[in-house]
Design a protein that fits this description.
With 530 residues, the chain is of the alpha/beta class. Among the domains are: 178 residues, Rossmann fold, CATH 3.40.50.300; 142 residues, Orthogonal Bundle (Helix Hairpins). It is 59% helix and 18% strand. It has 13 helices and 14 strands. The strands form three sheets. A six-stranded antiparallel β-sheet has the order 2-1-4-5-6-7. A hairpin with a 2-residue loop joins strand 5 and strand 6. The chain is rod-shaped, with a radius of gyration of 61 Å. The two termini are 26 Å apart.
């Protein structure tokens, strides 16, 4: 990204500074310590990303920062304790945005912050950031330069989908197992019904048994009526016999009185004629015969008992037939329900099996996708090729600034003894420090750092299909000896043939060696061009 202009107001000691950057060539920024030289780089960082390299509060007044590039123009203005962001990108124009919301809309048009900071803005405080960074940070920086961070959301989404499909697969397997148990239970119920079931008696047989029961019931009722009538007649005979016996006892009592005494009124003897008459009356008393009715009643009772037995037997047979029919119907219904349950369970098993097959296929595909997106897939291949390219570019720069004896080698993702993948990122130095960066001398490390920074910068531009943009170098080379200064300056001049290189330094010999197209001298936040 080529920086074309920078305007600072109330920003890190700059009350009002406006600068126009050349498209290519070295721009030297000089001045005493604390004069505001580094604020120019901080202004670009804050204008584009809303952050400073030193992560401090940059405002010293009301405040405004404007950065113009080849494709983006950004303005940040202080408003109270907040910042208002406006930007123009091609035909798109946004104004009055909050810092957070505006940055979300602006970021897609910019190089990521970490990439810009590590590939386009080099300072003495972090020139060895890559070389001394942990394996993980080195890896993340290069991945960010190559745009490999795009794999992260894809990998995350793939793993989320994989976890979701595995849960669905587990549910489908549970459904399949549950359906198998239901099928087994339904088959057992069907076997039980067949074992305990039987043939249902014909409806005609049940009807005939009912008719027989009804007929015997009518006969029993008729016979019972005859018995009741005979009982009534016997009661009538018993009543008349009782009356005759009572009358006879009365007559006999009168006769006994006549035989035993005289007339109680006149005292004379009772006439024989009266006695004879009483005896005749006694002889005339008729006693009803109960034997015949008893015989008839006994015969009627015997017939009633026979009918009662036949009626109860017929009724028992009828009820048994009905019970058999009911059991048969119940068994038939249970068998039908078991059959439906079997069909339903078989359908459930078929559907669950289909789901399992689909989910297993999805799991297999997602596992392949995860492998492609993960440490064994395309990503390490891209990174491996990129590291080879980074080695080549860095070694080319090293040959220019340190001679042919110094080389570096970057490697990542190596196979472990257990056939796993080690997420290890290493920097090996050939020709110094016994193969270790930390074992090299300060001058050698600075040359290695410089070569890596140049290589990273070129990679950042190449990975996005753009030409290298403006490069900022803040007091990076002040520790080099004269030979190193000359070597690095020559390399910087070559870099500046295609891009603008802004070098902040307080070393006059470096300025002279760089042969800048412009020199900005900063004192107390004011910039003069020399």
């Amino acid at each position: 990204m080529h920086i074309k202009s920078l305007d600072l107001q109330g920003f890190m000691g700059h009350s009002s500074t406006s600068l126009v950057f050349p498209e290519r060539g070295v721009v030297a920024v000089t001045g005493p310590n604390g004069a505001g030289k580094s604020a120019l780089i901080e202004g670009v960082a804050f204008g584009l990303h809303g952050r400073t390299l030193r992560e401090n509060d940059p405002w010293t007044g009301k405040g405004l920062v404007h950065v113009g590039t080849t494709g983006v123009h950004v303005t940040r203005a202080r408003k109270g304790r907040g910042v208002v962001l406006s930007f123009d990108v091609g035909a798109e124009s946004r104004a009055g945005l909050t810092a957070t919301k505006g940055q979300e809309l602006l970021d897609p048009h910019l190089m990521p912050w970490d990439v810009w900071r590590r590939a386009c803005a080099f300072s003495s405080s972090d020139v060895a950031h890559f070389s001394l960074a942990s394996d993980g940070n080195q890896k993340r920086l290069i991945e960010s330069l190559l745009g490999l961070e795009a794999f992260d959301p894809a990998l995350k989404a793939c793993r989320a989908d994989l976890a979701d499909i595995r849960r669905k697969l587990e549910r489908a397997e549970h459904r399949h197992e549950k359906a198998k148990l239901s099928l087994e239970a339904a088959r057992q119920r069907l076997a039980d019904t067949e074992k305990h079931g039987g043939e249902a008696p014909p409806q005609e047989r049940i009807a005939e048994a009912q008719r027989k029961t009804d007929a015997l019931g009518e006969q029993w009722c008729t016979q019972r009526k005859l018995v009741n009538e005979a009982l009534e007649r016997r009661r009538d005979v018993d009543r008349r016999a009782g009356e005759a016996r009572s009358h006879l006892r009365h007559l006999k009592a009168q006769l006994d009185k006549l035989d035993a005494q005289d007339c109680p009124v006149c005292g004379q003897a009772i006439p024989e004629v009266l006695v004879e008459k009483l005896r005749a009356d006694i002889e005339d008393v008729e006693m009803p015969d109960t034997g015949e009715i008893e015989t008839e009643l006994e015969a009627l009772k015997v017939e009633l008992e026979r009918l009662d037995r036949e009626y109860n037997a017929a009724q028992d047979e009828w009820e048994e037939l009905r019970e058999q029919r009911s059991r048969a119907d119940s068994v038939k219904g249970a068998a039908k329900e078991a059959g439906l349950a079997i069909a339903s369970a078989q359908k459930e098993i078929t559907e669950a099996s289909a789901q399992i097959a689909r989910h297993e296929l999805d799991v297999a595909e997602l596992m392949v996708t995860e492998k492609v997106l993960g440490l064994r897939g395309v990503r390490p291949m891209i990174l491996g090729h990129a590291l080879d390219g980074l080695d080549t570019i860095a070694d080319t720069w090293l040959a220019r600034i340190a001679g042919e004896g110094l080389r570096i080698k970057l490697r990542a993702w190596t196979e472990t003894k257990t056939a796993g993948i080690s997420d290890k990122f290493s920097l090996v130095v050939e020709g110094a420090g016994g193969g270790s960066y930390k074992g090299a001398s300060a001058g050698q490390r600075r040359r290695i750092d410089t070569a890596l920074l140049f290589a990273l910068s070129e990679m950042a531009a190449a990975s996005r299909g753009t030409t290298p943009g403006t490069l900022f170098v803040d007091e990076v080379f002040d520790v080099l000896d004269d030979e190193g200064v000359e070597a690095v300056s020559e390399a910087m001049r070559e870099v500046a043939e295609d891009r603008c290189v802004v070098v902040v330094t307080h070393r006059p010999s470096l300025v002279q060696a760089l042969q800048p197209v412009r020199q900005w001298h900063v004192i107390n936040g004011k910039v003069d061009e020399r």
